[in-house]
């Protein structure tokens, strides 16, 4: 199977046609011209200071509440390392991002998966868990266009989650890299912006709005928390990559990022719509919630379709998918995550048609 023949719904990354390569090249030249000393030096462990300030203004916080990292996964890792000890209870969504699960399992935390509904995390289920005596250190939540399920946490549930965190004294880790990639409905306020009791730590990334290759993410929290994590960051790497962060800063202050977001929104909105139409046409037995933004759509099949058999059958037909079982502590045997971000519109229907062939093959 050649790369041209393969249709991959596996990777959560944008296709090259929606990356502003020319804008990034121009931003790189401006970064080196404007601040050659800052771009080429070690820098500080909290990241490139002008970008740190820009992020702080975007979120309405002080600059000392922001740590800029090499991608948001590193922001996650810094926070987990700082807050979570072996045996600590941690709440995660069910399903949730597979790398988050792996990292928390590796740290020896006691994981509690809470179901995701069409309007996000099941807060009633979480309340029952808390009332049973479980006292989590942390609740990891992806509120917008969740990876992998594509759901969005409703405003009512955001407020309820904040109340639960204050009442039961745990941190909400708002992992929010997809927020700007909204192509339907109204934007909801972040839990960070609604937080009056200092229970939220927020992470995001420029991977989805600029491109994955820049590897620039960030963490927003209390100044004390950020200062403590910055000390660990200094020991780990002295500073993150100043070149990429300075390029991102120039891309942001020029307004190129706003144009980039519009391009990505328009393209992914069309891809999500076409994917949903193709699923309804070729796989009417599949259940899914059409996302309002982001990169992913979660598909659930009837019980006679096992994804352990479906994924290799799809691969034989030139379609790459990710098994639902990768995103949960247990279960997910009849579900797939489909990433529509990297598949152009002219290839989506053919990809779903091949997937439907694979479903028929494993059912018979």
From TrEMBL:
UniProt keyword Nucleotide-binding present: no
SUPFAM superfamilies, per database record: PLP-dependent transferases
Domain of life: Bacteria
Aminotransferase class I/classII large domain ranges (all copies): 7-355
Any one Gene Ontology molecular-function term assigned to this protein's record: DNA binding
Keywords: Aminotransferase, DNA-binding, Pyridoxal phosphate, Transferase
Entry cofactors: pyridoxal 5'-phosphate
Official protein name in the record: DNA-binding transcriptional MocR family regulator
Organism: Micromonospora luteifusca
């Amino acid at each position: 199977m050649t790369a041209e023949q393969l249709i991959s719904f596996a990777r959560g990354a944008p296709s090259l046609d929606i990356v502003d390569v020319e804008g990034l090249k121009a931003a790189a030249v401006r970064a080196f011209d404007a601040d050659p000393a800052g771009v080429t030096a070690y820098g500080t462990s909290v990241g490139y200071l002008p970008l740190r300030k820009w992020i702080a203004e975007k979120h309405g916080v002080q600059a000392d509440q922001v740590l800029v990292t090499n991608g948001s996964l590193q922001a996650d890792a810094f926070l987990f390392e700082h807050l979570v000890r072996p045996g600590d209870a941690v709440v995660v969504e069910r399903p949730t991002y597979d790398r988050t699960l792996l990292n928390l399992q590796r740290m020896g935390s006691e994981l509690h998966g809470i179901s995701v509904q069409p309007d996000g995390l099941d807060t009633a289920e979480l309340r029952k868990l808390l009332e049973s005596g479980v006292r989590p250190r942390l609740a990891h939540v992806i509120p917008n266009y969740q990876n992998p399920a594509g759901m969005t946490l409703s405003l009512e549930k955001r407020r309820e989650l904040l109340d639960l965190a204050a009442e039961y004294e745990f941190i909400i880790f708002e992992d929010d890299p997809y927020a700007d990639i909204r192509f339907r409905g109204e934007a909801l306020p972040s839990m960070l912006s609604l937080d009056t009791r200092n229970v939220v730590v927020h992470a995001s990334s420029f991977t989805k709005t600029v491109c994955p290759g820049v590897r620039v993410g960030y963490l927003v929290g209390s100044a004390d928390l950020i200062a403590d994590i910055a000390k660990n960051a200094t020991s780990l790497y002295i500073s993150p990559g100043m070149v990429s962060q300075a390029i991102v800063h120039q891309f942001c202050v020029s307004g190129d990022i706003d144009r980039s977001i519009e391009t990505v929104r328009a393209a992914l909105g069309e891809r999500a719509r076409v994917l949903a139409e193709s699923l309804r046409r070729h796989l009417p037995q599949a259940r899914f919630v059409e996302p309002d933004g982001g990169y992913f759509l979660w598909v659930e099949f009837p019980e006679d379709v096992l994804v352990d058999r479906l994924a290799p059958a799809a691969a034989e037909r030139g379609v790459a998918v990710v098994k639902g079982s990768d995103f949960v502590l247990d279960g997910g045997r009849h579900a797939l995550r489909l990433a529509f971000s990297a598949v152009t519109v002219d290839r989506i229907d053919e990809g779903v048609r091949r997937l439907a062939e694979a479903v028929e093959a494993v059912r018979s």
